[in-house]
């Protein structure tokens, strides 16, 4: 009796041969219904179909899902997250790991079954309830730059708090007495795409603590993460009675909008006012004057997250790993130590 072929299974299941192959190899990136998966597997089982040695090899492929709380528009406005996702993909290509399409919680998780993946990487702030539900679907979970901490879940994060305090101290040491701050809030998303709560960023927390400890007036505005938000915040700061001679900004995108307003108001950046930001986007080195900023190694964050996800998928360890990636302050014209 001739062995059953994939083509025969495909004909009986009314799907393509490629779909049968991917279903039998548990490819989580295949977009078919659970009913179709079950039908294909039942027919293969009824016909006593056996994977070839090559199919067994394919079945060991590590597949990783990226789940993010960021919308596509947020990634356009703030390239930080896009660079992290690219870091994950670049590292995956080098290790023959398959990355599925980015799953955006802003669109809702829907019927996506995360249990089909070898591991899951969640980027951005997601509600604690959502994280717990994802953990139930897939134990191999890594969080990237999230405010929430769980004793049994891996995390990879940039060193934001220590760097923020260092910048504030250096600005103060150079004689800047009135330091203002423009930051952004982070929205915690549920699995249905709805906002559960709004969290302050860690840089905001550090700034508030620092001005209190140094008995300084708090000059702070917090909005979203766009250049337009920086424009609005800078205008509001200028409208206040309290002057400021230094400005710390939570991202380069926000800083670009703020700088435009300050220059139009007659400030000489780097002389009248020192400005420091975060992200080290390529364009800020070419501003006039160039922007002093913190290099957050976004590709490294993505690469580290993928490595931890692979370790979990391969069962290389049984303990939780929290990783902090150091950042670097890049001095340019807007602030020289």
Keywords:
single chain; 337 residues; alpha/beta; 434 Repressor (Amino-terminal Domain); Rossmann fold; seven-stranded parallel beta sheet; elongated; transcription; transcription cis-regulatory region binding; Peripla_BP_I; LacI/GalR-like_sensor
The CATH class of the largest domain turns out to be Alpha Beta
Q: How helix-rich are the residues, as a percent range?
A: 25-40%
**Topology, number of strands:** 14
The average pLDDT score comes to: 90
Radius of gyration: 24 Å
Mass-distribution shape: elongated
Question: Would you mind describing this structure in some detail?
Answer:
The chain is α/β, with parallel strands linked by helices and about 325 residues long. It has 3 domains: about 5-55, lambda repressor-like DNA-binding domains (434 Repressor (Amino-terminal Domain)), CATH 1.10.260; about 65-155 and about 300-325, Rossmann fold (3-Layer(aba) Sandwich), CATH 3.40.50; about 160-295, Response regulator (Rossmann fold). It is built from 12 helices and 14 strands. Strands 1, 2, 3, 4, 5, 6 and 13 form a 7-stranded parallel beta sheet that branches. It is elongated and about 80 Å long. The relative contact order is 0.13. Residues about 55-60 have low confidence and may be disordered. It comes from Oenococcus sicerae. GO terms for molecular function: DNA-binding transcription factor activity; transcription cis-regulatory region binding. It holds the Pfam family Peripla_BP_3.
